[in-house]
């Protein structure tokens, strides 16, 4: 009987821990998930500040999608939109210090992405040589 209660306690702790992890991942994916957000942040970190510069660097993104993603990134505190009035009006996007918290994530994803690409290429080459 004591073992059963201990098992239930361990199981509950495991379930709560799992729930915390799932919620944290869900929050992260909400903020930076999707095909474009991290790519936009990376392009901006490399010095691209204007809408057209970002669109040129992030190959395949439409103007409508880029505009929407920039708004989401601004709402989540990663970037700020700076508008300079005058003629012509100048609009630039700037990374906020909070975006630097993604550096480890981007580094880990870059490393894994290169590793994964090499794995797939090696498997394709192995299957081609058979």
Would you mind describing this structure in some detail?
With 130 residues, this protein is mainly α. It folds into two domains: 1-32; 36-128, Orthogonal Bundle (Arc Repressor Mutant, subunit A). It has five helices and two strands. It has helices spanning 2-32, 37-45, 51-57, 63-75, 103-128; strands at residues 79-84, 90-95. The chain has a two-stranded antiparallel sheet. The longest helix has 31 residues, at 2-32. The protein starts with a helix and ends with a helix.
Low-confidence stretches: none
Quickly give the CATH architecture of the largest domain: Orthogonal Bundle
Residues in helices, as a percent range: 55-70%
Q: What class would the helix/strand composition place it in? A: mainly alpha
Strand content: 5-15%
H/E series, N to C?
HHHHEEH
| Biggest sheet record | 2 strands, antiparallel
Distance between the termini: 59 Å
Physical arrangement of strands within the biggest beta sheet: 1-2
**Computed Rg:** 22 Å
